[in-house]
Specification:
The complex is a heterodimer of chains A (344) and B (332). Chain A is α+β, with helices and mostly antiparallel strands. Chain A is 40% helix and 29% strand. A 7-stranded mixed sheet of chain A has the order 4-7-2-1-10-13-12, with no helix packed on it. A 4-stranded antiparallel sheet of chain A has the order 8-9-14-11. The two termini of chain B are 40 Å apart. The chains are: A alpha+beta (344), B mainly alpha (332).
Chain lengths: 344, 332
């Protein structure tokens, strides 16, 4: 049906111009047959605006949080004739995904890896919001935002951050509520930033100094006396657990109890495993605060560690008998063990 | 005739070229922004370099500062391209300075950030706040009975705990917020799914209308009975579907048939018709368009649909463009 127009013109042009490649003067009139080209150009001119009006990003805004995660907010024009829309996400570690269609209706979606299939059902414009943990990495104290954008976008940097490296040229920069906002063009951008000295030096460093003093001076004296008591406590707890039938179903009240006793639990773990690395201790603390379990992906997001590094850390903790790894929805669920003595 | 055609050709080509040139022209960088960014970085790094810093770091910093000087000079001389090069050089050097400084202080710095990340849950709280705000807007849209007062109180508590540096307590509060948010999300999605069904049916109805036009056009063009039969069967299946997932499945089936027999030619026009219908619906609920104008627009849309069913795509497209241009004026 759509081919009917073109062959008709072609046949006509061949009949009219038998000397197609012979004449060199007036070649424009012979080779470039105006009606054919005109029709082609009209089609191109007509189609271009329509093509750009469907499935195109209207706005894209990124906000970087201080812990290295990023909020993505985008408005996309989609084809209202299509029942769904496949959105390319900017990574695989996605949280808090919300897709809203025309008139603010919540749209159903299915996220598979770095794609989201959104049931648009006739919407012509959708607004997407989600948090992502894949755009920023950290080396030492230098944070690096790396992003290959399909369109121009705005980027709001975290408070107290200072850009110390940038691979491209921003279109604009302004300060919004003490935060730097950049207008950037499509394509690959890399921005390196650090946090300003006042915040780190005045707030966190003294705390760490105090903690390190506590760790290395007082620990020797205090822990020695506490450890014996704690070990005794743990042994008693274990006996109690063995006597009473353990409840498999995890209820809210149980998790609350676990949270209440978490500080004792972590201290017990640390006293049992003095050889533990400091960063592993932080992971254990986080799992404990999280109700005694966390997905490995959550740990990666929290500590901004690559997949392999976190996997090694989890394996280390498993070897130490501190955690056990279960599978939940094809993901690794890392759980603090209830009984340390089960492991050597 | 040829002269007219050539003239039209020239206008079309010129408009395309000029149209293509507008976007890059808008994307020009204000060069003084570059100076501002570079100076911020310089100032920050200057504060961090001290007597103990290595000679390499000091030298690199000097090089970076020199690049800023020449960047400033280039801007004064209006040598923008040169200024951009100096900016990029300066930022490359400052990145290296930061990395070197980071290596020098690697263990304490690493610990600082790791601990800060693990302890201070401010970013986590902010993320949840944004998410809950999003859910709140949607909940209002659906007139749900979801009560946000408890979660609002928890946000206040968590903020206070963070201000008092009680990070463990704040983490527990945030954990509660997350649990409540999961419940909210489920409740709102329940409401949404009820409305999704009616939206899906409405969408299916619109799709059936355009499918009818396609079938009519196929019949007019004398397409094979086999193709028409397939389309009509698919039409029956779609009209009997009620579940949103089933509707999507059936529409996908129709799209596959259309692609198989090269019947997608007028899909873009049909998409545009659907867009225009949405605009008309929005305008009909406002006072921007008079009743008579609205009626005229609806009539035009019906004419467009008729042209589409008759396979008169160019006429339909012209009318569609005129109508879209007219409605755009009222939209703003």
């Amino acid at each position: 049906m759509n081919l009917e127009l073109v062959p008709a013109y072609r046949e006509e042009s061949i009949r009219e111009d038998g000397m197609l490649f012979v004449r060199t003067d007036g070649i424009l009139e012979t080779m470039v047959k105006a009606p054919l080209i005109l029709a082609g150009l009209i089609i191109v001119a007509v189609v271009i605006p329509l093509q750009t009006s469907f499935s195109s990003t209207r706005t894209l805004e990124l906000v970087i949080y201080s812990d290295g995660s990023t909020h993505v907010s985008t408005q996309i024009d989609v084809d209202p004739l299509e029942p769904d829309f496949e959105l390319d996400l900017f990574g695989k570690s996605i949280d808090n995904f919300v897709a809203v269609g025309d008139a603010g209706f919540l749209l159903s979606e299915e996220i598979v890896e770095d794609k989201a299939i959104i049931d648009t059902l006739g919407s012509s414009s959708i607004v997407i919001d989600y948090d992502i943990h894949d755009l920023i990495s950290k080396e030492g104290r230098v944070w690096t935002f790396s992003f290959d954008s399909p369109s121009d976008y705005t980027l709001l940097m975290p408070k107290n951050s200072v850009i110390v490296g940038i691979s491209g040229l921003p279109n604009n920069m302004e300060i919004v509520d003490e935060q730097t906002k950049l207008d950037l063009t499509s394509g690959l951008s890399e921005i390196n930033y650090i946090f300003g000295a006042p915040i780190n030096s005045t707030t966190h460093k003294p705390t760490i100094l105090d903690e390190s003093l506590f760790n290395y001076v007082n620990v020797v004296v205090i822990v020695g006396t506490i450890v014996a008591a704690v070990i005794g406590g743990v042994l008693m707890l274990k006996r109690k657990q063995q006597k009473s039938s353990p409840s498999i179903i995890q209820t809210e009240s149980i998790s609350e109890k676990q949270i209440e006793t978490k500080s004792i639990d972590t201290e017990t773990i640390f006293s049992f495993r003095p050889e533990m690395r400091e960063d592993d201790k932080e992971i254990v603390k986080f799992i404990s605060n999280n109700g005694g379990q966390a997905l490995e992906s959550e740990l990666r997001k929290k500590f901004l560690q690559p997949r392999t590094t976190m996997w090694r850390a989890v394996k280390r903790l498993e070897r130490l008998g501190i955690i056990e790894i279960d599978k939940k929805d094809l993901q690794n669920l890392v759980k603090l063990k209830k009984d340390l003595e089960e492991e050597k | 005739m040829k002269k007219i055609a050539s003239f039209v050709l020239l206008i079309l080509v010129s408009s395309m070229i000029l149209g293509g040139m507008t976007n890059p022209a808008q994307a020009q960088t204000d060069p003084y922004i570059l100076l501002k960014i570079a100076k911020h970085a310089q100032k920050q790094l200057e504060n961090q370099i001290n007597q103990d810093s290595s000679d390499k770091i000091k030298q690199l910093f000097k090089d970076g500062a020199q690049q800023i000087k020449v960047l400033e000079e280039s801007l004064k001389n209006n040598e923008i391209d040169l200024a951009k090069q100096h900016f990029l050089s300066a930022m490359r050097i400052f990145k290296e300075v930061s990395q070197q400084l980071s290596i020098n202080q690697s263990s304490p710095a690493e610990m600082t950030t790791l601990k800060a990340t693990a302890e201070d849950p401010s970013a986590d709280l902010l993320r949840m706040q944004n998410y809950v705000d999003n859910l709140r807007t949607i909940a209002k849209k659906y007139n749900t009975s979801v009560d946000f007062s408890e979660i609002d109180d928890l946000f206040v508590t968590a903020k206070k705990q963070i201000m008092d540096r009680q990070f463990d307590d704040a983490l527990q509060t945030i954990s509660k917020i997350k649990q409540i948010t999961v419940d909210f999300n489920n409740k709102i999605r329940e409401y949404a799914s009820q409305q999704e069904q009616s939206r899906a049916k409405e969408y299916a109805q619109k799709y059936l209308e355009q499918l009818d036009r396609l079938i009519e056009n196929a019949k007019n063009k004398g397409l094979s009975e086999d193709i028409i039969q397939k389309l009509e069967t698919a039409r029956e299946n779609l009209s009997s579907a009620t579940d949103p997932h089933e509707i999507i499945k059936q529409v996908r089936e129709i799209i596959s048939i259309k692609e198989q027999f090269a019947l997608t030619k007028n899909d873009r026009l049909e998409s545009r018709v659907m867009q225009i219908e949405k605009i008309l619906f929005t305008l009909s609920n406002s006072d921007k368009l008079s009743q008579s104008d609205l009626e005229d627009a609806k009539k035009t849309l019906q004419t467009i649909k008729h042209h589409l069913s008759q396979g008169e795509f160019e006429t339909a497209n012209e009318l569609l463009r005129s109508l879209a241009t007219l409605l755009e004026q009222f939209q703003d």
